[in-house]
Amino acid sequence: MVFLVAFFGLRPMVASLTRTAEAQNPSFDEVQRSLPTPEAAAAETEALPQPRSNPLEDLRRKLKPAPQERLARMVDLNEERTALILRKWAHQEAAG
Prior knowledge:
This is Flagellar M-ring protein FliF. Residues 25-58 are annotated as: Disordered. The protein is mainly α. The protein is 80% helix and 0% strand.
């Protein structure tokens, strides 16, 4: 019984104590790997959202997308119909 208590009780306790001591004193390589690199700092800076100057303009942009975005959506939905519309517009501009 003493063997089982020592094996299943004391052994894991000693192992956990030694692991925490190692974790409190990390090696030099572990510390170096944990420090940020210049590339990582630049990537984090680029990933941050840039502040917008006018929230009302952002709302307008979301509600009414740019013509290029609208055309891209039209092409995504139906290429043939978009081509017909563009031909019709080009014909009207050439006639007018």
